[in-house]
Amino acid sequence: MRDIKKFQKTVWDYYNQHKRDFPWRKTKNPYHIWVSEVMLQQTQTDRVVPKYEAFLKRFPTVSSLSSASQKDVLESWQGLGYNRRGLNLKRAGEEIVGRFKGKIPSEVEDLMSLPGIGDYTAKAIVTFAHNLPSVFIETNIRTVYLEYFFKNSKEKVHDNEILRLVEKTLDIKNPREWYYALMDYGVMLKKIHKAKNIKSVHYRKQTPFKGSGRQVRSTILKYILENHKLTLPALCKIPLLKNKKNVIQEKIQELVDEGFIVKDKNYYVIS
């Protein structure tokens, strides 16, 4: 294994010269950090920044998010994709107000009991809001460890192996900045050295959005939000959805089952 101190110095040296500037890195507010972490899931930072700022302007507190209509939250989420994240954010806000008196929990277990918050997001909130050491991994961090410690490995690498190294190399005095440094170093490796996570057991190539079921779902929701209510025949006339009646019906049922929309007589409306 390569020297851990040398590894830490490499990452810190790069970060001290090239650290990225984001609004969520300038706050310790758990609510703001939670919103940013959810938005950053599978979405590029340049798309997130304006949405993050607009979202917090419209819903400045957990209480305002909790009391907002589902329609308002989903409208604010448009353009980020994966609308389920926005819906879970709203539902988690309601639980935080109801179960935790409007205060974002500071314990990983409590955070993970909320809709849409898994192991990574819970630990990221604890680390970035409270500067407490937690061991977690995301795509850019995974890239760093694969490139530095497993570059010549012929075997696929499991996240458990990487997590052991994350724990060994963690800067427990300043975990917040250390994780920012790892993420920035990982972005550089992907951009400059074209590093990929193909050596990871967990690597999956993302399927194209265009023409996918995700695009159909997103389009249905977008048009219902814009028009307030739509019938199935009206949805079938949308250019992007033409000749896809069976798929439309399937995705409508998914959206109903997941609580996004409801049927009111012949119309579909936001739940």
Question: How many distinct helices?
Answer: 14
CATH C-level label of the domain at 29-130: Mainly Alpha
**Looking across the biggest beta sheet, what order are the strands in?**
1-3-2
Strand content: under 5%
Report the major sheet.
3 strands, antiparallel
| Percentage of residues assigned to helices | 55-70%
General form: globular
The appropriate CATH architecture of the domain at 29-130 is Orthogonal Bundle
For the CA atoms, what is the radius of gyration?
21 Å
Distance between the termini: 54 Å
Examine the coordinates and then state which fold CATH places here, giving the name of the CATH topology of the domain at 29-130. Answer: Endonuclease III, domain 1
Whole-number mean pLDDT: 95
How would you name the CATH homologous superfamily of the domain at 29-130?
A: Hypothetical protein, domain 2
What does this structure look like?
A 3-stranded antiparallel sheet has the order 1-3-2. It is globular and about 65 Å long. The protein is 59% helix and 4% strand. Among the domains are: 29-130, Endonuclease III, domain 1 (Orthogonal Bundle), CATH 1.10.340; 213-270, Arc Repressor Mutant, subunit A (Orthogonal Bundle). The longest helix is centred in the last third of the chain and has 18 residues, at 175-192. By secondary structure, it is mainly alpha-helical. It contains 14 helices and 3 strands.
